[in-house]
Write a structure and sequence with these properties.
Blueprint lengths: L2 H8 L23 E9 L2 E8 L2 H5 L12 H14 L5 H10 L3 H7 L3 H10 L3 E6 L12 E7 L2 E11 L2 E6 L3 E6 H7 L3 E6 L18 H4 L8 H6 L9
Antiparallel strand pairs: 1-2, 3-8, 4-5, 5-6, 6-7
Length: 242
């Protein structure tokens, strides 16, 4: 663990960006998926096999959990880099990188900012872009983004995976994967989304294919990969598409 991280922990700093209850980020026990056959759910097909995992395992699937109460931004970015770009990074790697482009004393008082995250991803050769988004256009966002929520006074970074109808799919570094009612999301969101853009984006990323409740309809549900046109609309350039 880096020296600055140790100092922050030892000083009891929580930071305005991630002051969450520590009990919410305790490590869950390791659980394993089971392969189960479903019968008589699709006409003409005798058995449909699906890998089924526990609710606890599902909660933190494809998500980097924050290990400190000030590192939600680092964990959210690590989630995007690992599951949308294939980088083998951990939360601690991101924290070290963020401290290298930040004012440690300011971080102690305020936590990390989107500007810190932008500077860090640009050092990696990627681009960070922040956008003001109107609520009625949220559904047009097709790539995973990082958003800042105000949860009863606590500023907290999460990954916005996608929106559907009146629901928002989030990867929360503290609470896990969750579906938030659109009304609640809009009440806590500041109207800004932060996108990481560059080469190597996985058009079939698990972050843009959130798990739904298992039903006969969703057993064979598939997601089409994002098109060039969709990525260009989100700020990618032609050179980054190949």
């Amino acid at each position: 663990m880096s020296l600055w991280i140790k100092r922050l922990i030892n000083s009891g700093v929580t930071g305005l960006l991630c002051s969450l209850v520590s009990l919410l980020i305790l490590v869950s026990p390791v659980l394993h998926a089971a392969n189960i056959g479903f019968t008589n759910v699709i006409p003409g097909i005798t058995v449909v096999n699906k890998s089924v995992i526990s609710m606890r395992e599902q909660r933190y699937l494809h998500l980097i959990r924050q290990q400190t109460d000030f590192s939600c931004g680092a964990a959210a970015l690590a989630t995007v880099l690992r599951y949308a770009y294939g980088y083998k990074v951990a939360e601690e790697d991101i924290l070290d990188g963020l401290f290298a482009v930040s004012d440690p004393e300011l971080v102690q008082r305020q936590g990390f900012s989107l500007l810190n995250i932008k500077h860090y991803v640009e050092r990696m050769g990627l681009r960070g872009r922040g956008y003001n988004v109107e609520p009625d256009t949220l559904k047009e966002i097709k790539i995973p983004t990082i958003v800042l929520l105000d949860l009863k006074g606590y500023k907290h970074f999460v990954v916005l995976k996608k929106t559907e109808a009146d629901q928002v799919y989030l990867a929360d570094p503290a609470l896990g994967n969750k579906i938030m009612p659109m009304e609640d999301f809009l009440a806590s969101w500041n109207g800004i989304v932060f996108a990481v853009i560059g080469r190597g984006f996985d058009r079939n990323s698990v972050l843009i294919r959130p798990q739904r409740q298992l039903t006969a309809r969703t057993l064979n549900n598939t997601f089409a990969p994002l098109t060039n046109a969709q990525l260009l609309e989100h700020g990618f350039n032609h050179a980054e598409l190949f």
